[in-house]
Design a protein that fits this description.
2 domains, single chain, 1 helix, five-stranded mixed barrel, 250 residues, mainly beta, five-stranded mixed β-barrel
């Protein structure tokens, strides 16, 4: 009795090329370089809450994916931002604006996975997390910088502006946490709006700044100082006593 030969491609009826030197059939799918870590460069202005468009070498397919606006041959790679640092610098006042990713910045990224090898175990029914190999997103981005509000909040599959599932995610830590500000209104209660910019003076934007302990209560319009960015919010750490004339936030 002869054992039936296993056909590597049962639905095509044709086996892949055979290599007599190693006695193996060629792989039908190029698996790339595990564990799938790559360097990604920001290639488009930061305008999305949960991800930025980059260019870089996709280790799964062994190809450099470039980006050019409107060029289908250079689509770029959508890379998710870190949980806790999501939102955009122009997302709007009171929404927990995050640091702005600058075109040209380079960060390491990886493919997050829920499981090992080719096996993705299902989450318990009580755990609202079904993203698998996807960074996912939570609905409380404005309040917590993209972090779930609690254990009961769902983590959903993250899609980009082309309705494609996002695979890659940054693994860097924020190197810039302190920002300059100039208030645009008097401090009322524990927060006010301000023009916030990087320490270099670039990427100015309007955001809400917070003073939960009311240390700077009574701060007037035009006051300058420093804020610390954490969990999607700017917290005042230093303020100048004499306010300067407000010149805007160009």
């Amino acid at each position: 009795m002869f054992r039936k030969i296993r056909r590597p491609t049962p639905y095509f009826k044709v086996p892949p090329p055979y290599n007599p030197l190693d006695g193996e059939y060629a792989e039908l799918k190029f698996e790339g370089t595990y564990p799938y870590c790559a360097m990604m460069q920001v290639a488009r202005e930061d305008t999305y809450e949960d991800y930025v468009v980059c260019r870089g070498f996709d280790t799964r397919i062994g190809k450099f994916v470039d980006f050019a606006e409107g060029d289908p041959e250079k689509p770029g790679i959508s890379v998710a931002k870190l949980f806790g640092s999501r939102g955009t610098a122009t997302y709007g006042v009171g929404q927990g604006s995050a640091r702005k990713y600058r075109v040209g910045e380079i960060f390491p990224a990886f493919l997050p996975a829920q499981g090992i090898g080719e096996y993705t175990p299902p989450s318990p029914v009580s755990v609202p997390w079904r993203v698998g190999q996807n960074p996912g997103y939570a609905g409380a981005a404005g309040e917590w910088g993209g972090q779930p509000e609690d254990l009961g909040e769902s983590v959903l599959v993250l899609y980009d502006h082309n309705n494609k599932a996002v695979n890659w995610m940054f693994i860097h830590t924020d190197t810039e946490r302190h920002f300059r500000f100039q208030s645009r209104e008097d401090m009322v209660s524990t927060s006010c709006t301000a023009c916030v910019r990087q320490m270099s003076g670039e990427d100015a934007h309007i955001a809400e700044i917070h003073d939960p302990d009311q240390i700077f209560e009574g701060m007037e319009t035009g006051t300058k100082g420093l804020v610390f960015f954490q969990q999607g919010k700017y917290y005042i750490v230093q303020a100048k006593c004499d306010p300067d004339p407000l010149t805007g936030c160009e």
